[in-house]
Amino acid sequence: MPELRRRTLLSAIGVTAAAGSVATSQATVAHAADGGREAPYESEVRSLLSRMTLEEKLGQLQQLPWAYDLNPGSGSTKEVEDAARSGRLGSVLSIFGARTTNALQKLAVEESRLGIPLLFGLDVIHGFWTNFPIPLAQAAAFDPDVARSDAEVSAKEARSNGVHWTFAPMMDVTHEPRWGRIAEGNGEDPCLTSRLAAAKVEGYQGSGYRTKDRLAACAKHFVAYGGAEGGRDYNTVDVSESRLRNLYLPPFKAALDAGVATVMASFNTISGVPAHGNAHTLTGILKKEWGFEGMVVSDWTGVQELIAHGFAEDGADAARLALNAGVDMEMTSTNLLTNGRKLLRSGKITEKRIDDAVARVLGLKYALGLFDDPYVDESAAITEPSANARKAARAAAARSMVLLKNDAGVLPLSRSVGSLAVVGPFADSADLLGTWVVPASAEKFPAVKILDAVKRAAPDAKVTYARGVDPEGADTGGIDEAVAAAKAADVTVVVVGEPTAMSGEASARSDISLPGAQEKLVTAIAATGKPFVVVLVNGRPLTIGDWLERAPAVLEAWHPGTEAGNAVADVLFGAVNPGGKLPVSFPRTVGQIPIHYNHESTGRPYDANNKYTSKYLDLPPTPQFPFGFGLSYTTFDLGTPKLSRANVPAGALRKGDTVEVSVSVRNTGDHTGDEVVQLYVRDVAASITQPVRRLRGFKRVTLDAGRSATVRFPLGAEDLGFWTNDPNGEFRLEEGTFKLYVGTSSTADAELTLTVT
Ligand code: BGC
What we know:
Blueprint: E1 29-30, E2 38-39, H1 42-50, H2 54-60, E3 62-68, H3 78-85, E4 91-95, H4 98-111, E5 119-122, H5 135-140, H6 144-160, E6 165-166, H7 190-205, E7 218-222, H8 241-248, H9 250-257, E8 262-265, E9 269-270, E10 273-274, H10 279-289, E11 295-297, H11 305-308, H12 315-325, E12 330-331, H13 335-345, H14 351-367, H15 387-400, E13 402-406, E14 419-423, H16 441-444, H17 450-457, E15 462-466, H18 479-488, E16 491-497, H19 518-526, E17 532-537, H20 547-550, E18 553-556, H21 564-572, E19 636-638, E20 642-643, E21 647-648, H22 650-654, E22 659-667, E23 673-683, E24 694-703, E25 708-715, H23 717-720, E26 722-723, E27 731-732, E28 736-743, E29 750-756
Parallel strand pairs: 3-4, 3-12, 4-5, 5-6, 7-8, 8-11, 14-15, 14-16, 16-17, 17-18, 21-29
Antiparallel strand pairs: 1-2, 9-10, 13-18, 19-22, 20-22, 22-25, 23-24, 23-28, 26-27, 28-29
Helix pairs in contact: 1-14, 2-13, 3-4, 6-7, 6-15, 7-9, 12-13, 15-21, 17-21, 18-19
The chain binds beta-D-glucopyranose.
C-alpha cells in the first residue's frame, strides 16, 4: 500500500427489480435542487466530452491521494499537482482546507487545457471538526434523525473547507463483531441500516449538493464487505444471491432511492469474484437493474488488488476487468490511466464505456456546481465546532447510549452525591472520538473527558480519580489505588473499553473482551461491595465476562465523539434518560460468533431437552444481550398489538395495499423516557428458508410518566416477501402464514398471525 495517506484514523428493498436503463454515455444527474428531477447536464457533458483527448478522459477517471491540509508547492505532492496542471486528474482524496483546496483547484482550472475542476473527496464518516458518535452508536439511537444531524453538521463543516464529496455513509451489514469496521456501519440488521443510510444521504446531500453547505455522498462498500470470513478485514465472502439481496443490498437500494451521488466498490470477493471486477453486482444490479446513473469509485488501490486476488494477470488486466465490470474512477492506483490507450487499441475496452464513465464523473461535477464556481470562500471556512454543532453531537451521543443493566436503581446518580470515585483508563482520557477523525482535529478539538464532565455535573461532590490500569497491558499495579478510592466513595464510576484504534479498518480482534487488565479492575471494584457503575466506551460489541454478574449497572456509551464526557454525564446524572437499543447482538464468547437475531431456521431448532438440536453444549443458545435490547430509568408497558386485517390477498399487497399493526405503549414509571417499539416478521414456510425474525418497523417514542401513545406500522409486500436466488432479481411474496412479533427487543413475544391468501 502506498505510504502517502493514512489516515484520518487515529492511529427498501424494491418490490420489483426496476427495469433500469443500460448505462449510456449521457450523464443525467439527480439534481435535487430541482426537487429531485434529472438535471439537464447531458448537453454540457456531451459537448465537453467531444473536446477531450483520450488522455484527458482517462485523467478524469483517476483519483490521487493528497496529504490533508498541506498546501501545494511543498514538494511531496508534486505528482498530484503536475497531474492537475496537465488535465490528467479527475479527483483528489484525503484533502481539506479552503486554502489548500483552492490552491490545488487553481492549477486544474487555470493551467490545464480544458480547465475542468477537480473533485475533492474525504472520509467524513462521523464528523469533520465536530465528531459525532461512531455510526454503530448512531444506529443504537434507533432514530434516523441522529444520523441526519451528524450528516448535516459534517456537510456544512467539510464543504466550507473545500471538500465536495464524503466517502460515507458506510452501510455494510455484518454479523461479525470481530471485524473492526463494524464500528463504521449500523450493525446486523438491513432494515435499520437502510433507514439510517437514507437519512445520512439526505443529511449530506440535502435538497441539492450544489449548495455550499452540502456534500455528495457515497454508498459504500459495494457489496457484502461485512461478510468477511472470521471477521478478518478484506477477507473472502461467499454469499448466495438471496442472502446478497436480502441482507447486504437493501441499504444500498435505500441510499439510491434517497439519491446518493456515488457508490464505492468493496475490497472483498463475492462468491469468488472480487467486487471491483464484479460485473454482476456493479453493472448488472447497480447500473442496469437499479438504473444508477451516478459514479462508481474504486476503494483505495482496489483495482490494483485484483492482481493479489488472483483475478487479474497484471495492471492492464486489472484496469480492463474493473472498467468493464463498472468501476468508473480508480482511487490511488493508476492502472487505467497507464494502460487505457493500449487497452482501447487492442479492443479490450471500448470508447463508449470510457465515455460513460467520464460522463458520470463530469455529471457529478456539474451537479456540484463546480463548473460555475470551483472555489470555496476562504473567509467563510468553519474552523472549529460551533456551539450548535457541539449541542447536536452531545444530544446524538446521549441518545445513542444503551443502558444494559441497572440493578437496584443505581442510576441515575444524584447530583448531590457526597463523594464519587471515577476510575479506569478511559475516565481521564480523550481517546473517545471514534475511528475516523480528521487529522489534527484530535489535538485541536479533543473529546470532553468523562472525569471533567462528571466533576461539573456534581460540583459539590468530592471526586477522586484513579486510572487503575492502562487500556492495554497486564500491569495491575494501579488497581489498589482505584480500590481505595472506591472504598472511600459513596459510588464509583468505572470507565473501561477499547482504544479507538482497536476498531475501524484493519482492526479485527480475535478476543473481543475488555483489553488488558481492565476486567481485573472491574472485578476488584466489585469486591469492595460498594455501589458502582460501569461505563463502556468501545467500537464493537464486547464479550462481557463474569464481571457482568457483579456490576450493578452498565452503560454502553460506545465511542461518543467530541462531546463524549458531557453526554456520558448527561446520562449518568439523568439529564437524559437512556433510550438506545443494541443494533447488534452481544455474544457471550467469541466461540458463539456468528450469533445474530436474524439467523435462518434450521431443521433442529434449539431445544434444551434434546441434545440433537442446534446449540453449543457449553453455552446457552442466546447472546449475552440481544439485538434491540436496552433499558431505561423508567418502565414501559405495551398493550396487546392489533392487526387491521388477519387475512389479506397477496394480489392486493402486490398492488401496494398494506395491513397495519398497531400497539399502545405506556410509560409506567416516574421519569420521562424513550421506548423503541419494534416489529418483527417471520414467514412460517417459504420456498427459501427465511430468518426466524426480520425487523420490519421501529419507532422511538418519548413519553412523560403515565402517558401513552399508539404506534402504527404499515406492512406491505416489501416487508413480507423476499428475494430469491434468481440472479436477475426476483422478489417474491408467497402465500401462507406470517407470524408478527411486537415488543421492545428482538425477543419480543407479543405475537400476531397474518395470513396472506
Ligand atoms: C477504505 C474506505 C475509504 C478509503 C479512502 C479505504 O481503505 O476502505 O472506506 O473511504 O480508504 O480513505
